[in-house]
């Protein structure tokens, strides 16, 4: 049991790591300075796209021009800022046709991906308490709750990672086909896919731990249910004390149980007799 709880603690630490990485991925671009400024999804050459800067970076909350190692000319911030060059800069002949003809594809892929990541992060936070509880107490129902929450977190974070990857890889290829330089934000994609891997390991272990806890509980219940059977004699029959074995070995245990705890009355004492004669040692002798 201690081994399973020790392993559960290791996976609890991995769960915290998955939560931290998902948190960083969803906060990418929330601030204009610091580490979050380097967490972008796509950087591409957008020169000639209407009023777009020469190089643009897309974040979760805004898009910004990037020049000489610093960001500038950022758009207004809002949650789930969509990736849509047509909406961001207006239609232009220099823009790849896919951004105009398939505008909704990029728009909804990027927005839904952010929403799914947020939902997955919520399930990660909700799973922290039950996973921590299983470290200290092998409760089957708590382990079951943590397993459900972890699989839900894995589902939504994986869905978000797939949507983000599909959106921005498709966009990068569109820029490349148009002869423009474009690259993915390696940090953001590393964070979100590492979160997927960590959550997968946590969910698998939680499932195994829940099964092991359940098996141990069933075995414990069986031992408790047979705890009353403490006789050392032949267990093929029910009553050995008085020799009136009236049930065979195939009798259900519930009948065996009631037979064992039944109390028999004490044997009747022999009838008393009045002595009328005495032997030579003055000991009473029963009449013949």
UniProtKB/TrEMBL annotation:
It comes from the Eukaryota. The chain crosses the membrane at residues 6-27, 112-142, 148-169, 190-215. InterPro entries: SUR7/Rim9-like_fungi (IPR009571). Pfam families: SUR7 (PF06687). Residues 268-288 are annotated as: Disordered. One of its GO terms (biological process) is endocytosis. GO terms for cellular component: cell cortex; membrane raft; plasma membrane. Keywords: Membrane, Transmembrane, Transmembrane helix. This is LAQU0S05e04742g1_1. It comes from Lachancea quebecensis. The lineage of its organism: Eukaryota, Fungi, Dikarya, Ascomycota, Saccharomycotina.
């Amino acid at each position: 049991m201690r081994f399973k709880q020790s392993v559960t603690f290791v996976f609890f630490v991995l769960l915290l790591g998955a939560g931290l990485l998902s948190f960083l991925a969803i906060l990418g671009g929330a601030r204009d300075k610091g580490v979050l400024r380097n967490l972008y999804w796509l950087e591409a050459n957008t020169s000639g796209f209407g009023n777009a800067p020469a190089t643009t970076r897309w974040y979760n909350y805004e898009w910004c021009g990037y020049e000489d190692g610093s960001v500038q000319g950022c758009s207004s911030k809002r949650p789930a800022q969509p990736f849509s060059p047509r909406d961001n800069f207006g239609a232009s002949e220099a823009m790849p046709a896919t951004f105009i003809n398939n505008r909704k594809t990029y728009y909804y892929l990027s927005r839904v991906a952010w929403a799914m990541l947020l939902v997955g992060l919520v399930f990660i936070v909700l799973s922290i308490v039950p996973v921590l509880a299983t470290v200290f107490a092998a409760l089957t129902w708590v382990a079951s709750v943590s397993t459900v929450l972890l699989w839900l977190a894995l589902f939504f974070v994986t869905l978000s990672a797939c949507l983000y990857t599909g959106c921005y890889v498709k966009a990068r290829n569109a820029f490349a086909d148009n002869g423009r330089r474009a690259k993915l934000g390696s940090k953001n994609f590393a964070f979100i896919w590492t979160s997927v891997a960590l959550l997968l390991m946590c969910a698998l272990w939680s499932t195994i731990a829940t099964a092991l806890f359940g098996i141990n509980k069933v075995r414990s219940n069986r031992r408790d249910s047979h705890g009353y059977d403490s006789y050392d004699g032949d267990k093929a029959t029910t009553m050995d004390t008085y020799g009136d074995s009236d049930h065979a070995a195939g009798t259900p245990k519930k009948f065996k149980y009631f037979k064992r705890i039944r109390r028999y009355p004490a044997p009747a004492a022999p009838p008393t007799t009045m002595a009328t004669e005495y032997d030579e040692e003055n000991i009473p002798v029963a009449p013949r």
